[in-house]
């Protein structure tokens, strides 16, 4: 990833397509969702006033720290599952956001059943 600000939809697709077992779908008519083992690990709003917003799972012990950062907040409807919404993605380098997405993938994948994990390609 370059040092550009935000994370474009193309960059997100390239990043997530390279993650073993990741699948892409559109949910709620406007959100691009990448999942692993049927569990979401990143959501990208594609239309409307929230276009470009990115949401992902974070470690429990980093949730308060990250949700207190400028341009980040607890993700609506997903905060209890320790998801962050980047409401101002232009504040962050694409490399930083990509690291969060990769970590979210790792967190979600690690919480899948052992059987589901075994059925996925190696990480």
Explain this structure.
Pfam families: YjbR. InterPro entries: YjbR (IPR007351), YjbR-like_sf (IPR038056), YjbR/MT2646/Rv2570-like (IPR058532). This is MmcQ/YjbR family DNA-binding protein. This protein is α+β, with helices and mostly antiparallel strands. It has one domain (9-115): Aspartate Aminotransferase, domain 1 (Alpha-Beta Complex). 30% of the residues lie in helices and 24% in strands. It is built from four helices and six strands, in the order αββββαββαα. β5 (72-74) and β6 (83-86) form a beta hairpin. α1 (9-17) packs parallel to α3. The longest helix is centred in the last third of the chain and has 17 residues, at 94-110.
Question: What's the layout of helices and strands?
Answer:
Blueprint: H1 9-17, E1 22-27, E2 31-36, E3 39-45, E4 54-57, H2 63-67, E5 72-74, E6 83-86, H3 94-110, H4 114-119
Antiparallel strand pairs: 1-2, 2-3, 3-4, 4-6, 5-6
Helix pairs in contact: 1-3
């Amino acid at each position: 990833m370059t040092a550009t600000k935000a994370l474009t939809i193309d960059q997100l697709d390239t990043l997530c397509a390279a993650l073993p077992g990741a699948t892409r779908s559109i949910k709620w008519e406007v959100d691009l969702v990448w999942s692993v083992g049927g569990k979401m690990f990143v959501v990208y709003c594609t239309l409307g006033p929230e276009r470009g917003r990115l949401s992902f799972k974070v470690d429990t012990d980093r949730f308060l720290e990250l949700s207190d950062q400028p341009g980040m907040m607890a993700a609506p409807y997903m905060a209890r599952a320790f998801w962050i919404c980047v409401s101002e993605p232009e504040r962050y380098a694409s490399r930083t956001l990509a690291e969060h997405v990769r970590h979210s993938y790792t967190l979600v994948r690690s919480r899948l059943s052992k059987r589901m994990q075994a059925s996925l390609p190696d990480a």
